[in-house]
Design a protein that fits this description.
6 strands, six-stranded mixed β-sheet, alpha/beta, 6 helices
Length: 140
């Protein structure tokens, strides 16, 4: 439905205290594990050519909003969807850490309905709302 990425996110204050210029810098940082995201820290570190840190995660949550809230409070670095974090990113409560180097695209959300229903008024209204929220048209 929309271009989405999983990115390393942090509160600006935490990033000022613990600057990150390369992936290895995160090995000694407080990491928040999100059980809900498609890309978790072990896979992310492997993509960066690194082994998982030896120390345990500072916090672990099974809900993305809890991960984002903890990260916005400066409790650690999170690996989370930029789409789900949009409110935090727009307000400045969270920033992407090296977005070009550390983010990974994902395609996790899909809108599925029978094509024969595409002309139904309620479906058209819903699609119009989704297009305005996401800022692009659907092709189906």
């Amino acid at each position: 439905m929309r271009n989405e990425a999983v990115a390393v996110l942090a509160a600006p204050g935490l990033l000022a205290q613990r600057p990150v210029s390369q992936a290895a810098d995160l090995l000694d940082c407080e990491l928040i594990l999100s059980e809900a995201t498609l890309l978790k820290w072990p896979e992310w570190f492997a993509q960066q050519g690194l082994a998982l840190p030896e120390k345990p995660y500072t916090l672990s949550f099974d809900r993305s909003y809890m991960t984002l809230e903890a990260a916005s409070l400066g409790l650690g670095f999170a690996l989370e969807s930029t789409l789900l974090a949009r409110k935090y990113l727009d307000s400045g409560a969270l920033v992407e850490v090296a977005p070009q180097a550390f983010s990974a695209p994902v395609a996790a959300h899909h809108l599925v309905f029978p094509k024969a229903h595409s002309s139904f008024p309620r479906v058209r209204r819903f699609l119009g709302w989704m297009e305005s929220e996401l800022g692009h048209d659907f092709v189906f």
